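Action item from last week, closing it out:
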Amino acid sequence: MITIERYDRKYQTDIEWLAQCFHEESLKEYAADLSLEVLQNTIDEVRDDTYLMIVDDVAVGIIAGRPADIPLTKEMVWQELIWFVLKEHRRHGVKFLREVQVSLKHEGYVAMGMACMENSMKDKLFRLYGKLGFQPVEHHFIGRL
């Protein structure tokens, strides 16, 4: 049975494992200077805005983000920072996302922003986000100083 829960320290070891797997799969190939420690600290900073997918009392998925607003309208938006589900549970990843969206809507958010990392899975994520009703808004570019 799958349940969706808010961040809970009892899953700390699972959360650290999810962060490590996400880092290995999605970040390491291009963002070598984004350390696992930075990622884990970021998740800890947004723990009040973190959702976990639980199977058999183990966290197997995480969606973490933070509140933002649309600059011109000041409407509440929730910006995703990490969406990751262990491979063996990915068939439930969209259901997990949809349940988080329902929760966010009940909290007063009007939209959810999803990030797409510039890595080898970018095209697959663009297609998935499009199928789920997300529209691209802008691309960000970072230049080191």
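Closing note: The domain at 2-131 is CATH 3.40.630.30 (Aminopeptidase).
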